[in-house]
Amino acid sequence: MTMPDHKPERKPDQKPEPDQKPEPDEPGQETYAARAFRALESAGASVRVQAALAVGTDPDPRFVGKLVERCAVEPEFHVREMLTWALTRHSPSITVPKLVGELRSERAQARSQALHTLSKIGDGQAWPAITRALLTDADDEVARAAWRAAVVLVPEREKPGLAAVLVTQLGRGGPETRLSLSRAVIALGERMMPTLQAAMAASDPQVRQHAIATERLWYDPDAGFESAIEEAKRVAALGTTSQDE
């Protein structure tokens, strides 16, 4: 008697090995895409991160919308990082427009994670979407992500204009937010210096101290931010800057 061909059964949640393409879906069976979508919404963070890893390992345009959707609501940092990685594995021609669309979301996490992912993709077509509204967003996480994305995406000729917007945020937030802003300003290179030096003479002491600390970090990148701030306080109190010393 001839036995019928029989494929080994694959468990519903089993993902293909990194070098293995998904087997064709048989009629009546749940599709691989549907299983991946379900896994990305699993209650278990370990399942979600493995699903994102599998989707990024074997990129497929069908997954991009779901990955972007999950970025907006995923509660775990390490899972969000894997979602971002998975998106970077897909074509920017597909991912960038969808991520740019998220920048208009009312959900802060959607905006911040989209900005973070755009900074990792590094495709300049996203630059026009990095608006002043995002760079000055009331949510610190969104603003910080916008600063990081902006310095990656900005064309050389537009660096002075970006610096002018960034210095309006000097003195904002706590130490982490201020350090993020200092790093973004410094990343613009020499083109930011005239704008930064103008801020060093600001009437607001918080702005002035932050600007001076940023200049200190520019000249001494190994200096800690806290020590740069303390030095900035001393300099501001004495009314001197590096230009005067």
Automatic annotation (TrEMBL):
<dbReference type="InterPro" id="IPR016024">
    <property type="entry name" value="ARM-type_fold"/>
</dbReference>
<protein>
    <submittedName>
        <fullName>HEAT repeat-containing protein</fullName>
    </submittedName>
</protein>
<feature type="compositionally biased region" description="Basic and acidic residues">
    <location>
        <begin position="1"/>
        <end position="24"/>
    </location>
</feature>
<dbReference type="Pfam" id="PF13646">
    <property type="entry name" value="HEAT_2"/>
</dbReference>
<dbReference type="InterPro" id="IPR011989">
    <property type="entry name" value="ARM-like"/>
</dbReference>
<feature type="region of interest" description="Disordered">
    <location>
        <begin position="1"/>
        <end position="31"/>
    </location>
</feature>
